[in-house]
Amino acid sequence: MAFVTSEELLATLVPIAVYWIYSGMYVMFESRFEKYKLHSKKEEEEKNLVSRKEVFKAVLCHQVMSIAINLFTYAVTREKDGEASPKKSLTLLLLAKQLVIAMVVIDTWSFFVHWYLHQNKFLYKHLHVPHHRLVVPYSFGGQYMHPIEGFLDTMGGTLAVLLSGMSPRTAMFFSSFTILKLVDDHCGMKLPGNPFYLFFNNNSAYHDVHHQLYGTKYNFSVYFDIWDRILGTYMPYSLEKRPDGGLEMYANSQLESDQIELSEAASFCNIGQIAAGGSWRCWKPVPE
Hints:
With 288 residues, this protein is mostly helical. The protein contains eleven helices and two strands. It has helices at residues 6-29, 41-47, 52-81, 92-119, 121-128, 147-164, 168-185, 195-199, 204-211, 226-230, 262-277; strands at 237-241, 247-251. It has a two-stranded antiparallel ribbon. The radius of gyration is 19 Å and the shape is globular. The model is unreliable at 254-288 (pLDDT under 50).
């Protein structure tokens, strides 16, 4: 029996190709979309604590791990049955059911993993801080994270596919859609006519709030904002045009005046010191 089938290989590799093609489009045209950017280039250079080159390398490492996990999962689940499961005729009703289940699973998994990484000071400091070195997010930074967080993130997608009963072909389309959403949420722009804004309340601006110091404990959601609203971690915002071009984002509630905990702020200060020294790796924990 083959270790992996062609459909399983496509389900693993196509979403990665989608990641780089879609994020690459944003990079190519970002200079033409200055008036839609949530932050200026100067802000990115001043606030971000990791270079684009380092982010690029770390994302490649994450994707190599994801490939290994996905191929192993397909091999194990097929071996459990002895043979590949017979294909079911995919009706629209079954497809809709699988997509809803998968979206609910990945949304719930990602929210609570993400939320807990912020609640637990040790895990935040040693696992989640790398992702927040991108105070000004950009398209291909969505998968920039500590390897252990990357493993947890990959497992969310794996569980969504397994629990929904998706075939590798359906999983390929679902995972690609999830990747498009991830890239879009981190693109740092609010483009008019973007279809994600029509169907999802949590978009690039929504997630950008989370990357700011005042919003690090708010706006965790991936697909839906229901968990943020239930747990009181929803922070509304408004956008205004900047005189020098682009958009300025403001928190739309009294939450804006809340101070992040001193220990969390100290973590960012330490990160800045590490970045200034230039000797840290992308997932190196903040020193005691």
